[in-house]
Amino acid sequence: MNARRIVMSMFVLTGSLMTPLAAHHSGTMFEEKKTVTLEGVVKEFQYTNPHSWLLIDVTNKDGSVTTWGFEAEGPSTLARAGIKPSDFAPGTRISITGRPMKDGRPAATWEYAVRAKDKKRFDPREGFRVK
Amino acid sequence: MTRVTKIVLAALLALVLTAALVWSARSEDPAQRKARMIALGLQHKTAAELYRALQQEAGGGQRLAWNAMPDWSGVYTRARGGITFDPDQRPGTPPTAKLTPEYQGRLTKRIELANQGVEWDPISACAPPGHPRWLTEPFLREFIVTPDQAWLINEMVNDIRRVYTDGRQHVPEADRYPLYNGDSIGFWDGSRLVIHTNQLQAGIYQRRNPDYTNAVETVEIWEKTTGTLLEVDVWVYDPPALVEPWYTRQSYSKLDDPDKSLRIRYWNCGENQNNTVFETQGGATQFKDLTFTGQDDAKGATK
């Protein structure tokens, strides 16, 4: 991985991370315990069923750009988590953390994201909380 | 004591006893209640037999008029259980079903493989979950009750179970064929909706949960137990896979929606190429071709 800032870390599984991607496929293609945190600029927010994808452009050390995809649940779960399409308009600067794919492709689960302009945190799994 | 006095006293005694029974049932410890429900399932050899017994107990059941329908309006989601079939299954423990040796072996293998990262969910190809798995999906739900039908709606893949409460019977046995959600008939017993479902097709209760077969049938009793909670007693009968009926209590919470923002939309499982997965030769799940990677992932070639 050539991303400009990648922090790979092993950490103890939390309840949040143990929640699988529930909508339609197993999450076993993703690492269970490793996470990656990237800073980048939103390229596209695919607000779709059964999973949404947040695509961000990450500038690597050599100046090249890699597009990463972060997978979350679908629109109704995101809406319940307070995550709207307008929160991640193209060009929005964010930091995002997820569990990367085991095969090295630039994709990961979306565990949480922090928007640079206001430090607001977005956790898709909040959408499963029963209030 | 006059005859009238005796009748009044007898009526009062009956009232007190009924109230005591109701109070006792309502204050019953959840574990005691569960044991009673399990025992009820064991008293009947088939789901059809249990359904008939419940119907008899309800005096044949009722067909409610429009003005007598309970208020099940609103948007709900599963209250407990995550994506395990039995909400009482504790984390790190196996499913609570009592399985035949063959199906216990299948489950053990499934969990072992999943622990090794090898897992394939049949809904990954966009098939609906099917019932009884339908009970477990963690998305939005609506429950529409009318005198002739109840519609039990799961947002996922626009999935509707229709429960016929107009007095019709099941499809004749010779004409039955496997269906994802089966054929459901039901009756009202006061505010409780009792449902029998047959004509189902094989599936899994959930990931890391057992298989069920084409022989699976269920009996459910749905009731709104508080202003915001629908609770369901469920008995699953499936002799090839279960050595005894699997009783669970499912529940669905009505979600707060003060700004009326919760809306169930059409769910097209195939609308985004990035969600297309396939089963590898080893039985694992893999993305087919992510659109943003700049290469044809399936072939490893540059686009």
State the major sheet of chain B: 9 strands, mixed
Annotation, overall tally of beta strands of chain B: 15
| Class per helix and strand makeup of chain B | alpha+beta
H and E string of chain B: HHHEHEEEEEEEEEEEEEE
Alpha-carbon distance between the termini of chain A? Answer: 40 Å
Could you tell me how far the N terminus lies from the C terminus of chain B, measured between alpha carbons in angstroms? 99 Å
Count of alpha/pi helices of chain B: 4
CATH class of chain A: Mainly Beta
User: What integer value in Å does the Rg of chain A equal?
Assistant: 14 Å
Secondary-structure arrangement, i.e. CATH architecture of the largest domain in chain B: Beta Barrel
CATH topology of chain A: OB fold (Dihydrolipoamide Acetyltransferase, E2P)
- Radius of gyration of chain B over all CA atoms, rounded: 23 Å
Number of strands of chain A: 8
CATH superfamily heading of the largest domain in chain B: Calycin beta-barrel core domain
Tell me the quaternary state. heterodimer
Whole-number count of domains of chain B: 2
Which percent range fits the helix content of chain B? 10-25%
Shape of chain A: globular
